[in-house]
Each structure stands twice: as C-alpha cells, then as structure tokens.
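Target chain:
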Amino acid sequence: MAMSVPKKSDALTTSGNPLPPLNNQQKESLIMMIVLHYAEEHALLNKEQIEDAKASLRALFLRATGEETMLRKIISILRVNKSLNQTFSDMTHVLEGIHKARKMLSLKLDKLKQHIGTLAITVQENTDFAGPFLEFSEDFLRSVLTFERQMSEYREVRENEARAAHTFRLAQEARNSLKHRFENHDSVESEHEKKVKEKVYQHFDFSEAETDYHYTQRSAKHAEKEITALLNKFQQMCQMAMKPEMRTPDPVHHNLNKPEYPDIYTMSSKAMRTYPKLKVLVPSIQELLRLYQHSYGIFHLDFEKFNRAIVPMIENIEDYLQAKEMDEDVRTKQKKLEKIESLIAFLDAAAILLKDGQQYAYPQFSSTTTKLITHTTSKWSGIAEDLLRMKVTAEAELSTQLS
C-alpha cells in the first residue's frame, strides 16, 4: 500500500527547534493503544488477555528500545481468538445444518403420507410400494434424528476430553515440579524424611486427573465410533435410493443373499410403471430419493468439518470455554470473527509501517497512522471509523502522561 512518507528535511518544528523523532517503542505504543482500546470495546479479548496486554504495554514504556514484540504478541493472541470463534461458528453451523435437514425431511415425509392417504391405496399397492417405502423413510428419519443427537453429544464429550487433558497436563507439570524440588534439596535428609517425600510425591493428586482424562478419551472414542457406524448405515441406505448401475459396490455386504435395506429405487420405479394411480407421487418420491441419496455425502463432510473445527478448541480449551460462555449466539461470534480479521490485517500493515526505516516526529507519525487507518480499499475499512476514535483516545492518553 503506497503512502506518502515525510522526509527528514520536512520535520516539524516548535519555536524554531526541530521536533525529536520517535523511537520504535513510542511508535509501537500508539499502535498498540489503538488496538487495545478497540479490542476491549468490542470484547475481542477476554479479561485476562486484556490485563496481560496492558501489563505488556506498561513494560513497553519502560524498555530502552522497541522491537515490536508487543505488536507480534497481540497479533498471535488475536489469531488464536479468531480460530476459536471460527471453531464455535463452524460447529454451530454443522449442528444447525443437520437440524434443518431433519426438519425438511420430516416435512416432506409428512406431505407424502398425506398425499398417499388421499389415493385410496389398495392392499397390493401398499405391499409393493407404500408400506416398504414409508417404513424405509421412517427408519431414515429416525437415523437422522439420532445423528443430530450424537453430533451434539460428540461436541460435549470432546469438550470434556479437552478440559480433562488440560487438567492432566497441569497435574503432570505440578508433579514433575514437586519431584524436581525434592531431588534438588541440598540439606541432609533422614531416611524418614525421604520416605515422607516419596509418599507425598506418589500420592500427589495426579492419578485422579489421569483417570478422568482416560475416561473422557474412551467416551470420545465411543461417541466417534457410534457416529461412524451411523454414517455407514446412511451409506448403505443411500445406495438403495439410487439407480443400481450407479451404485458403489459394498465390500462388506455384497456377498449377502439379501441386502440389509430394501431397494427402494427399483421398488419405486417398478411401482410407478405398474400402478398408474401412483404416478402423481413421482415428484415427491424423486425429491425424497434425492435427499436420501446425498445425505451420506453431506453428513460425512459435516463430520469431517466438525473434527477439523475441534482442533483449535483442544489446543486452547480454557480460552474456548471462556469465549463460549461470553456469547453463545453464533451471529455474535461471526461479527467478532469479522472484526478480528480486520484488526489482524490492520496490525500486519502497521508492522510494515514500523519497519519502514523512516524517522517521524510525533505529528508526522500521527498523520501517517491516520492515512493508514483510512486507506479506502484496505481489509480493515469496515472498522476504520472505530479505529480513528480509538486513535483519538490513545493520543489523548499518550500526550498527557506526566514524565
């Protein structure tokens, strides 16, 4: 991004004396105060992160030189928070998508039942088509409902697993620290003291954390197996909803004399040709067959996306749970995500500005920062107005600090 940069010869003066150029820490301080004010106002950082950032900012004022460590640190924190908000959004969207799919399937199936009820179906027509098709459909709908429940439970058990893993790591670290202190004790110990220390070490509250962690691991693996088994069922059922010549051979069931699920595509096609009365059902039947056929692919992709989204949660479980408590509404999370992305883009550009090698007096750097914020085609243009307000606040604080 091209911006006009003041030359050294253009330095402003006060009473005929040139203004001193800002050092790196002074320039970084202005940028960081703008960012922290914005992040705090829009709750992009949790309370602990804000306090930590403010402490680092106070330390920045005391450093002899600035190396942009604070700026890079806040970018790193924002990237973590971005991934956590993305995790929450992705998992919520998957669960909402499954819920909508079930509702739509239920609605279409109810309409088909009502339509069939108006046709005065004969016993033979019911035996050859209506009965088996509706039984298959009810089984499929129950499976989707089970899938919805299992996916919701899966998120919960993975959260529990991540929480237990974090507690287990803390217990390991505490136990190792205690052992290290015991082993590095310089004074001469009696045999009794050694036995007491060993007993304390052995009975340190470590086994409970380990047991809880292994239990949550088993629960998560069990939940994953249940979902995988259900996806296998969907795969088999969706094969029965498509043309036989387009089906993928099933290595598990291809040798069985009788398929596990009825061939509803062939059954439906034959019934439409055999019983003219049923032809009015063709649009509804085709729509349901389409939904059955592609459900496995969609649900399989949902499960893969869900597992990818879980990774940042596992790596940052405390921040994830705190972010989850702050706002459960996925729309709020999405807005935060957009603000974080804009703020990261601004910080990346500001980092380049801090390294441009130019010397700025304070008024020049202030003007250059304003131009950076208000750059019309920037990725942070959506938050530019707020950043300008934060800049005014930051400059008021910086310019009135007593030396």
In short: Residues 1-11, 64-68 have pLDDT under 50 and may be disordered. The CA atoms of residues 30 and 377 lie 23 Å apart.
